[in-house]
Amino acid sequence: MAEYGSVGHRHHHVLIVGGGTGGIIVASQLLRARPGLDVAILEPSGVHEYQSGWILAGAGLLPYEQTHQMEAAVIPAGAVWIQDSAASFEPEAQRVITASGDILSYDVLVVAMGLQLNWSQIKGLPEALGSHGIVSNYSRAHIAATWSAIRGFQGGTALFTHPATPIKCGGAPQKVMYLADDIFQATSGVGVNTRVIFCTALTQLYPVKAYNATVERVAARRGIETRLLHNLIEVRPEEQVAVFEVRAEGREPSLEEIPFDLLHVVPPMAAPDVVARSPLAIEGQGGWVEVNKLTCQHKRFADVFALGDVSSLPTSKSLAAIRGQAPVLVANLLAKLDGQPLLSHYDGYTACPLITSFHSVVMAEFDYNLQPVSSFLVDPTKERWSMFLVETRVFPWVYWHRVLKGRLHESRFIKPFAPLVRALGLAFKQP
Ligand SMILES: Cc1cc2nc3c(=O)[nH]c(=O)nc-3n(C[C@H](O)[C@H](O)[C@H](O)COP(=O)(O)OP(=O)(O)OC[C@H]3O[C@@H](n4cnc5c(N)ncnc54)[C@H](O)[C@@H]3O)c2cc1C
User: Fold this and answer.
1) Are the beta carbons of 314 and 368 closer than 8 angstroms?
2) 112 lines ligand 1 (CB under 6 A)
3) Together in a domain, 30 and 125
4) Catalytic-residue membership of 352
5) Which of 59, 72, 199, 316 is at a distance of 20 to 30 A from 101, taking alpha carbons?
6) Element (H or E) spanning 104, and its range?
7) How far is the CA of 194 from the centre of ligand 1 (A)?
8) What's the Cα-to-Cα distance from 374 to each of 266, 348, 349, 378, 413, rounded to whole Å?
9) Are residue 105 and residue 135 in the same domain, yes or no?
């Protein structure tokens, strides 16, 4: 792994912008498939995040140290790391201009820049986060404080929100709520009386019918109140009041104020500004990089590919989705370099392990048709202890040691262990 600072003008066969989950997986898989390929990764951060571990770390289910590593440790051997950030894209000229003013030209570009969290789109939130019971597990800096606020909660109203925009891991806003509710229920025996409300800007709890039915049952079992079409637009920390814009069909939007004692906020999200204002974006549609949903190739610039949160791929934004996208992108990118047709297709596979308690997970895997699929050969709509063990014990190790190394992409099925997994799945099914 080579590293350098200011370069002026450099050319690389493959330039990957973003060294997060998608960027590192693509680089690793490319170099495994074609050792010696000239691959550079443009990434400003010195730390690589395992964001899927944030909810686990926030609940004491994963040591916090296992949610991040130095970026240098995850750059695959043979790739060049350029520690800088993209300031603008010039796809007609096949080049990216960095924040330091350097010019990076390429034969093929991969955009893997993730998305940006727009905390300031909720009035009063940036100043209030971390005070007056206002917390969020969507900020690494607030993970520890969020869980200590939940554990130390003295009762009252606990509000959990889900915004109107696409978000990373659509189930995460509920995961933190179900874990928190376990804590609240444990303390109710000593007199702590809690009302839990889930306010979502969406029309249902989960976009996939089969999983929606499951989480509706979970919320009802717990006595959680759900408010649909409620979009958080303002917090008034001193009064501990959250203001929601409420939409109902055939009516003008109205405002509703809900007092809280604890408020867990998931902020609105969008494509990074530098992408949204570039020629790579789809105008007026969230600013995502406009790619073909089957091949991951840009619809207007044939030498550009994208995957992950920044892409327009019409599936939920998750690490699991990237595991499905990366091998397709890599195969098509290599075909493009070789002047061959792009034959590999992505089926929209994604997953969001929904943690429904301290001992159960619904694996929630699905495809472009919003149909449940299962990598584990058991009914993925059921709450299972076996999937809880997979999510909390297996996945973190697999991420650092297999996925990031480009090793877990040949198949999403754990074929050699299928009988064992099936047996565990049945044995540890929730009653
Ligand atoms: C709380 C939480 C829980 C989650 N739980 C799950 C889960 O259970 N299962 C699951 O599958 N997924 C989960 N996810 C989602 C998953 O983490 C993301 O979908 C995944 O990390 C997206 O990968 P990415 O490569 O698209 O973006 P990222 O991993 O965010 O990487 C983007 C990279 O681009 C870099 N970058 C940004 N701007 C620039 C620039 N201008 N120039 C160069 N580089 C730039 C960033 O520094 C970053 O390293 C969760 C996410 C969160 C926040």
Assistant:
1) yes
2) yes
3) no
4) yes
5) 72
6) strand 103-111
7) 33
8) 28, 13, 10, 7, 8
9) no
- Report the candidate in 380, 367, 360 with the shortest Cα–Cα distance to residue 422: 380
CA–centroid distance, 224 to ligand 1, in Å, is 29
- Cβ 363 vs Cβ 387: under 8 Å: yes
344 assigned to some structural domain: no
Domain of 131, in residue numbers: 117-268
352-407 tens-digit pLDDT: 899 999 999 999 999 999 999 988 888 899 999 999 999 999 999 999 999 999 98
pLDDT tens column, 277-335: 999 998 777 899 999 999 999 999 999 999 999 999 999 999 999 999 999 999 999 99
CB of 297 sitting under 6 A from ligand 1: no
Do residue 252 and residue 122 come from a single domain?
yes
> How is residue 282 annotated by DSSP?
P
Does residue 162 sit in the same domain as residue 204? yes
Sign of CA dihedral 61, 365, 164, 232: negative
Q: Is the whole model's pTM more than 0.90, yes or no?
A: yes
Same domain, 192 and 236: yes
Distance 396 CA to ligand 1 centre (A): 15
